[in-house]
Amino acid sequence: MVTELADGIWWFDLQGVNAYLFEDDGDATLIDAGAPWTSGALLDDLDDAGFRPRDVSRIALTHYDLDHVGALNRFGTDVTVYAGDPDGAILRGERDPPWNNRKTAFQRASRLIAADPEQPVETVAEGDRIGGLDVYGTPGHTPGHLTFVSEERSVAFVGDLLRESDGRIESSPWVLSHDTGAVKSSIRRLAELDLDVEILAMGHGTPFVERGGVHLSDLAGRL
Prior knowledge:
By secondary structure, the protein is an alpha/beta fold. The protein has a single domain, classed as Metallo-beta-lactamase, Chain A (4-Layer Sandwich), CATH 3.60.15.10. Strand 4 (27-31), helix 1 and strand 5 form a beta-alpha-beta unit. It has helices spanning 39-48, 66-69, 87-91, 102-110, 180-192, 212-222, and strands spanning 2-6, 9-14, 17-24, 27-31, 58-60, 80-83, 121-123, 129-130, 133-137, 146-150, 155-159, 162-165, 168-171, 199-202. The strands form three sheets. A seven-stranded mixed beta sheet has the order 1-2-3-4-5-6-7.
């Protein structure tokens, strides 16, 4: 299901995981790419929003997880994928996640299912800019987790750092996180930036379209 959250900001609800499209000055940035089994739904949602895969200028990944990278190879080789480190190195097949952490063990097993992407994968870090989005390092759910923000357009794409459940915002749970202490630190630090955003777009659950920065600060205060 596709929903336009604001002018040029699209939410693709892909059977339990979210992807987003951010238009800026004629460019279209896809944020995350769903799971392998939702790739058809993602392309259908793109079409419903008036886009084809070749209209996507770049793909920005909040992190490496099977349910966020599964449709990458449906977008051809001309689109650059951007990811944090070490998630990008894992995605390129340059390193294997270790078995000694619940999260990285799951990532390692996932590599048996998800093919390495055909596109170039470039590493980005806090302070970089992808299209019209500022990059922030928010490790915890994975070591290389990123958040993408446009205060001009009043939106923050927070990936799996946060999730929404029954109208309540929550942090990434222990069972799904590489380091819950780092999750909490990333949430607090992001809240301290006092981001001027209405839309808070997470990887799972229904995104908030109002008072996104306030919701983020409220969560940080509960941690």
